[in-house]
Amino acid sequence: MAAEVSVTPRIAGIADFRGSFKAADGQRIEALEVYCKGCRRPYDEVNGQDCAEKIDNRHLIGGDQSTRAKRKVIVPPAGAKIIPGGTLQRRGVTAYVGGVSRPR
């Protein structure tokens, strides 16, 4: 099981150094990974700096969306003919009775 616990920067520093910290009730919690919740970078990299998420969060969405490559449109081979198929009901009782939700 994994759980994410929000703590103060002081407690995060202790957890990063020791690998564990004590909760308010006195229970010791083992910290396997300490990171910034906003930018998801390791705590030792962002300690004492402003969160990169406040400035720009492009690193979380895979870079600048305007410069990413678009999906390639597949061109059918010469002489091929595309035949549109019928529509299938994928939700509801009609789909279940029609055999979409279960194997034949």
Summarize this structure as a short list of keywords or feature phrases.
single chain; 104 residues; mainly alpha; 4 helices
In angstroms, what separates the terminal alpha carbons? 38 Å
Low-confidence stretches: none
The oligomeric status of these chains comes to single chain
Please state how the strands of the largest beta sheet are arranged side by side: 1-2
Order of helices and strands: HEEHHH
Secondary-structure content class: mainly alpha
Contiguous helical run count: 4
Mean pLDDT across residues: 78
Got a strand count?
Answer: 2
Q: Biggest sheet: strands, sense, closure?
A: 2 strands, antiparallel
Describe the SSE topology.
Blueprint: H1 9-18, E1 20-22, E2 28-30, H2 43-46, H3 52-55, H4 92-98
Antiparallel strand pairs: 1-2
Describe the model:
The chain is mainly alpha-helical and 104 residues long. Helix content is 24%, strand content 6%. It contains four helices and two strands. It has helices at 9-18, 43-46, 52-55, 92-98, and strands at residues 20-22, 28-30. It has a two-stranded antiparallel sheet with strand order 1-2. The relative contact order is 0.08. The mean pLDDT is 78.
